[in-house]
Amino acid sequence: MAPADQNQDNGTSDRKITHETVYDSLYASIIAGHFEPGKALTIRGLAEELGVSPMPVREAIRRLVALGALEMRSTRRVSVAKMTEERFREIVDTRTLLEPEIAARALPNCTDELIKRLESIDNEVAGAMERGDPDAYSLKNREFHFALYEAANCPIMLRLIESIWLQFGPFMRIVVGRLGTSLIVDQHISAVAALKNNDEQALREAIRLDIYDGMDRIGLELLGHSSNE
User: Fold this and answer.
1) Considering all CA atoms of the chain, what is the largest pairwise distance in Å, rounded to the nearest integer?
2) 3-state SS class at 1
3) Among residues of the chain, what percentage have pLDDT more than 70?
4) Are 4-79 and 85-223 in the same CATH fold?
5) Domain 4-79, second-level architecture
6) Which residues contact 139 (CB under 8 A, 6 or more apart)?
7) Among 2, 48, 214, 221, which one has the highest count of C-beta atoms within 10 angstroms of its own C-beta?
8) What is the reported pTM?
């Protein structure tokens, strides 16, 4: 029989794994747009869907509400927030301020291994675009950006960007689902080229254009006009 303290440690570890697994699952579902904006979600319903007790779901929701990904309606109900014009414009402005900057800060830490990883991810992005697979596109597009941004070693900025992505992810998924992937311009190729050339200005511009290409489509589809107007 294992010592009591070892059993306690294992129990704590198992609870931590469950909490992180539930959080990661809900995070991925929000990013991929599996939850319709404005639709009410219940802790009990999510717990049943994930096959866990309500406790880790409640903790995951608390974290996601703090990030702005979910809105708390009551003690038992939450929802993905609806997009408004004001919120949309602030998200676009914040992304174009933070993401080119964190990409530039990643440039000095860029390695051949990172470039190969980004190229591999972008191949998967391209494959998703060719297949017209909005779920795979949404997840792989995020993976590309965060693989780059994590190289900057700027945890505070990265957390702010994570919060923003969680807020616009569901809307991006809806728009990509409606419009398809054929009209999306892959600016990742330009970003990788800039990394290879150690060209900070070109890297900033590639990220900025990538944001506007996607966010303008969200604006046109959900708000009826371009964010550049």
Assistant:
1) 69
2) coil
3) 81
4) no
5) Orthogonal Bundle (1.10)
6) 28, 31, 32
7) 214
8) 0.79
